## 1
Amino acid sequence: LGAIDDPRAFWADRHAAVLLSDHEGSSNTLIEAAFAGRPAVATDAGGNTEAVKPAGGLLVPLDDPTAIAAAIERLIADPGLREELATGAHRQALERFSTAAFLDGHVAALSEIAHPGT
């Protein structure tokens, strides 16, 4: 697809995110999908485990194509599950990755440095 200039428009046209990396840092793709209210199927590798929690998506073993296919099939076949995970993904994104959460985390870290042990 090339570069995506408008992630909101991109995710508006999709039902779910699928990221099957064998290693991953903090995935902006999964976080953007969650903010757009899209559930994810992702391998349980690297930062995917932090970006995808049970209420917002399905983590699958890296080396298990059968489990990967089954998870994708579950999202396709079960619109209720897809909607439930979409709602959870969006809620988790707001709680964990919003600007306010980001700033709160940084302020807490700076406070700990300035006042260790308090």
## 2
Amino acid sequence: MANTPDTAAPSSRIADTLPDLPMVVWMVLITLALGLIGGLDANALIATYNTGFGSALGEFALILLPSFVLAAALAHTDIASPGMGRITATLSPVAGAGMICPDTAYAALSPAAGNSRLDVAFGAYAGFKLLYPAGPLLVATGLGVLGQNGVGTELALYGVALLLPVWAMGLLWARLALRQPARKPNPTAPQTALSDTLRPFAPFALLASLLCLGALLGPTSSGAINFLLQPKGALLAAALLALAQTAAHQRRGCWDSAVRRTGSLLLLIGAASAFGAVLTALVPVEDFVPQSSGLLTLVGLFALTAAFKLIQGSSMATFAAVAPVAAPIVLGADVPAVAAIYAICLGSFIAILPNDSYYWLVRRDALEDDPENAGRIWVLSSGVTVQALFGLILVLGATLLWGS
């Protein structure tokens, strides 16, 4: 999901002539320029910008803050131990979804992944995109369809069913695309009991349990219980459990880290949402997405999101920017809301390029044996593209089979 890479991409002649500004500043400037060039007067531009910037920002804060607390708490835990490679690969989609960030999930799990680091990279990325309460919840929130006709429960079930084959496709690609030499085990590494190794993942188990219980029980007469059994409350409970497992002197640091990351990301999300709102006010994007056929609409949403992802780089910024553009399309099309949400989620898979910080994180670790940037870009981008196209085929097939 990524804000900015911690290692800058190799500079080009064009890049050398541009001011060195943070991504969010570029987004604000481009949005304002787009509105002025498009003919919006100052008052209309500011009003549209304000509406887009504040869209669902409070809900995003309730999702991101506990997720980053959870990530910070896990970062203080040493999960590395012999034989953990397969376990971390298996848990990587859950970590990617629970932390609402594939970068953080990969950084936390990769030290214990060993030869399974590329498996972890594809797993964390797929989990963030497809598992509730990560990408699907963010997209549903941005579209304003969360809670309509049991959308939340359907998203959770649909996501798990979709993740397994899409993730398997990523694992297969990792085997075929890159064969790394096995790393020698460290004989001095401390032996850690399996129970101690898995203990840091207890918050994810609590998160899943609360969401499943909420799906089974439905609304209750208690507002507090209803909040706890919904994604935002379940994330908060998981974060508090993670803090309880963290040393007392480290807890304030976890909160401080979460506040910094949430604040900067909310600024990015707001700017991206404003960009989408201004673009929608100027360009009838819905005219470019066919709505005469449900399947063609899903393909159009997939392609629209992929285009945003190629431009934005950041997955979170893509979700925020595409939501106001896609919302009228989803509401006006004769397609299931859940299928539309996952068409958008799958479109955001494309692609892991140097304008995405996930590329810089994975390339220096899982792909360190490949000295060429071109080779690394090919392995990562082609892998997630294969996952995206395979997932889209599954979504189209399910929609055709069960109808709208």
